Amino acid sequence: MDWESHFYQRSEPRFLIQNQLCMSSKPESFQFSKVFEIGSFQVNPDGKLRWKDLADLFQEVAWRHADSADFGRILQEANQMWVLSRFEIKCEDLPSWGDQVEIFTAGRGVEGLFAFREFLMLGDKGKTLAAGMSSWLLLDSQSKKIIGPEKALPDHLFKINSKPAWIPERHRLKSLEKSAIGVKVRASDLDLQNHVNNTSYIKWVEDFMQEEGLKIESLSINYLAECFLGDQVEFFIKRLDSELQILGQVGEKKVFSAVVKI
């Protein structure tokens, strides 16, 4: 199912992803935070936190926030689930093994059928290390039909009649060329719903960038369709001066797109 093309209308001017870190909210405006220590299993050969693990930490905080108000349990009992649609992350300085970081999160309102959640990572002495904004769809976990978020969102977590200035963009990629590089979905890529975990897509992009000798400055990813065990995901690539565009397809089905600032 392609949830992206049918349900999202953008009404605000676009913002360049390289400016989004300065657009992120102040720590005191967030609703929940948790302190983590970066483990040895979360870093790359340079000793820095992997982008995939950064995304994992952001989403762990999101779950802890929802669970703190029993919102996660209530959704499960109602056979409802959140599906991540778009995710944008900007980093100033990735933390290293052994660093302590504090990650903040908050619901940032609703536009149409999409609910927004913001993230902020602070390091030593309150230094801003990374920020993220995500947009989510609420689905019936059995029928996969989309549910209006206002029917499920508690007002203390998400302000229904508000939306953030920073809204993750829908990609419109053209003229990409097929790459010799692709990935096969493995069991370790799967989540509780038995389809590919959204951070696995980030891992695939990160691996591709490292193998090409390229450094990620910021990442924007659109999740377009479900992907399952055994699927062969082919990459289609377009490289510009300061940007790499990636489209992942299984056969004719587009499953994700990514825009990476380099």
UniProtKB/TrEMBL annotation:
Domain Acyl-ACP thioesterase N-terminal hotdog: from-to ranges: 31-146
Q: Which Gene3D superfamilies match?
A: Hotdog Thioesterase (3.10.129.10)
User: What's the source species for this entry?
Assistant: Algoriphagus formosus
Q: Which residues form the Acyl-ACP thioesterase-like C-terminal domain?
A: 181-238
Query: Where does this protein have coiled-coil stretches?
Result: none
Provide a Gene Ontology MF annotation, just one: fatty acyl-[ACP] hydrolase activity
Q: What is this protein called?
A: Acyl-ACP thioesterase
| Keywords in alphabetical order | Fatty acid biosynthesis, Fatty acid metabolism, Hydrolase, Lipid biosynthesis, Lipid metabolism, Transit peptide
**Membership in a protein family:** Belongs to the acyl-ACP thioesterase family.
Entry keyword annotation includes Phosphoprotein = no
Source superkingdom: Bacteria
